[in-house]
Design brief:
- The protein is an alpha/beta fold.
- The protein has 2 domains: 14-102, 2-Layer Sandwich (Uridine Diphospho-n-acetylenolpyruvylglucosamine Reductase, domain 2); 109-218, 2-Layer Sandwich (Uridine Diphospho-n-acetylenolpyruvylglucosamine Reductase, domain 3), CATH 3.30.465.10.
- 26% of the residues lie in helices and 16% in strands.
- The chain is built from 7 helices and 9 strands, in the order αβαβαββββαααββαβ.
- The strands form 3 sheets. A 4-stranded mixed beta sheet has the order 1-2-4-3.
- A hairpin with a 4-residue loop joins β5 and β6 (118-121).
- α1 runs antiparallel to α3.
- The longest helix is centred in the first third of the chain and has 14 residues, at 60-73.
Length: 219
């Protein structure tokens, strides 16, 4: 029996939904309940929910605009990566009050630096693709999970994934030098760094790694 969720948030008005849709365009907005189903059900069908919209932003500025509008209007947002989680954190509640923000379109490999042993990836890059990109330049990206063919980097970081090589290489946070994050009010925190010995100030990236989208959306 699927687990049910409850929330008291108001359902967004049609006009407000149109404002959200205008940020990413109708082509990247899913309104049809039958087309939303893949975003509303956990793989084992243990967690199911409903949503007012599914938005598929293609850039960090679009994510920023979505969260800014959500903050101004009190609209609940559910960030989602590859929807491979098994505890239901990526599934909205039942009432249809929330908007799912899927990062799947943000799938660019921004940069690879073999000499520095770093990669800069969009949150929607599939883990298996990141592994292959590293292998092409003679490097190993050691994070490896059973769902690596469909899970996304943003979700791996948001959940601080461990995987099969954790004892040798650590959790996901041990492989991260920097992050780019959109905060709840739409501000963009640029914490992308390639410096390994960085002892300047607070290590803010570790606040977001493992926070499961509660503090911001990793992009």
């Amino acid at each position: 029996m699927p687990t049910k969720h409850k929330t008291t948030s108001p359902v967004p008005s049609p006009d407000l939904l149109d404002r959200f849709a205008s940020i990413v365009g109708e082509r990247n907005t899913i309104r049809d309940p039958s087309e939303m189903d893949a975003y509303l059900t956990e793989l084992r069908n243990l967690y199911t929910g409903n949503a007012s919209l599914v938005l598929r932003p293609g850039s960090t500025p679009e994510v920023s605009q979505i969260l800014k509008l959500a903050n101004e209007t009190g609209t609940a947002i559910v960030p989602q990566g590859g929807n491979t989680g098994l505890v239901g954190g990526q599934i909205p509640f039942d009432g249809g009050e929330e908007i799912v923000v899927s990062l799947s379109r943000m799938n660019a490999i921004r940069a690879i630096d073999p000499e520095g042993n770093t990669m800069t990836l969009d949150a929607g890059v599939i883990l298996e693709r990141a592994q292959a990109a590293a292998e092409q330049v003679g490097r190993l990206f050691p994070l490896s999970l059973a769902s690596e063919g469909s899970c996304q980097i943003g979700g791996n970081l948001a959940t601080n994934a461990g995987g099969t090589a954790m004892l040798a290489y650590g959790n996901a946070r041990d492989m991260v030098l920097g992050l780019e994050v959109v905060l709840a009010d739409g501000r963009i925190w640029d914490g992308l760094r390639a410096l390994r010995k960085d002892n300047t100030g607070y290590d803010l990236k570790d606040l977001f790694i493992g926070s499961e989208g509660t503090l911001g959306i990793i992009t």
